[in-house]
Amino acid sequence: MKNIYVVGAALIEDGKLLVTKRNSDRILGDLWEFPGGKIEQGELPQESLKRELKEEFNDEIIVGDKVTETASYEYEFGTVHLTVYYAKFLSKNFDLIAHSKVKWIDPAEALDLNWAPADIPAAQAISKVNLREVRFDEDH
Ligand SMILES: Nc1nc2c([nH]c(=O)n2[C@H]2C[C@H](O)[C@@H](COP(=O)(O)OP(=O)(O)OP(=O)(O)O)O2)c(=O)[nH]1
């Protein structure tokens, strides 16, 4: 089975979480996810995340701590190992290239979305967090 290493960003602002819906024509189309993508050879996960957000939204981000441990899910096309990191925007262009929809939600609402299956542990973890208390290195 093919292993696919993926990073996602839990982008937060004013206590809200940004969630994105995958375009219909992609693998796992129309499911909600954390924006991000595959880790490429030689990249640190945090570097992949910054590159993906630049590609997908044309935005710069700051990457913080992991939301929870890496979750693995066996899809028919391979096993995705997904790690989600807290992040925040430095710019906000939001060019929608890979997504059909984005919205800001309260953490508790994360439990109601139709997520890509690998995302469910991270979504559940975030649903219990007061996002206003999430700190980034530069805040210390
Ligand atoms: N970006 C992202 N991908 C996820 C999440 N959850 C999840 O199972 N995946 C899967 C979907 C894809 O198989 C893989 C990430 O690849 P990707 O986002 O680059 O999407 P893709 O395969 O459609 O694009 P490509 O690089 O092949 O062009 O991980 C998530 O929260 N974010």
What are the main properties of this structure?
mutator protein; 2 helices; Nucleoside Triphosphate Pyrophosphohydrolase; 140 residues; NUDIX_hydrolase_dom; DNA replication
Explain this structure.
The chain has 140 residues and is an alpha+beta fold. It has a single domain (3-139), classed as Nucleoside Triphosphate Pyrophosphohydrolase, CATH 3.90.79. It has helices at 45-57, 120-127; strands spanning 3-13, 16-22, 32-33, 36-38, 61-66, 71-75, 78-89, 99-105. The structure holds 8-OXO-2'-deoxyguanosine-5'-triphosphate. 8-OXO-2'-deoxyguanosine-5'-triphosphate is lined by residues 4, 6, 8, 26-28, 33-34, 36-38, 80, 82, 116, 118-119. 8-OXO-2'-deoxyguanosine-5'-triphosphate binds at residues 4, 6, 8, 26-28, 33-34, 36-38, 80, 82, 116, 118-119.
Kindly report how far apart the N and C termini lie.
42 Å
Mean pLDDT: 95
What are the distinct ligands in this entry? 8-OXO-2'-deoxyguanosine-5'-triphosphate
* Number of beta-strand segments: 8
The ordered string of helix (H) and strand (E) elements is EEEEHEEEEH
- Which structural class should the secondary elements be placed in? alpha+beta
Overall CATH architecture = Alpha-Beta Complex
Label the overall shape.
globular
Strand content: 35-45%
Radius of gyration: 14 Å
In a few lines, what is going on in this structure?
This protein is of the alpha+beta class and 140 residues long.
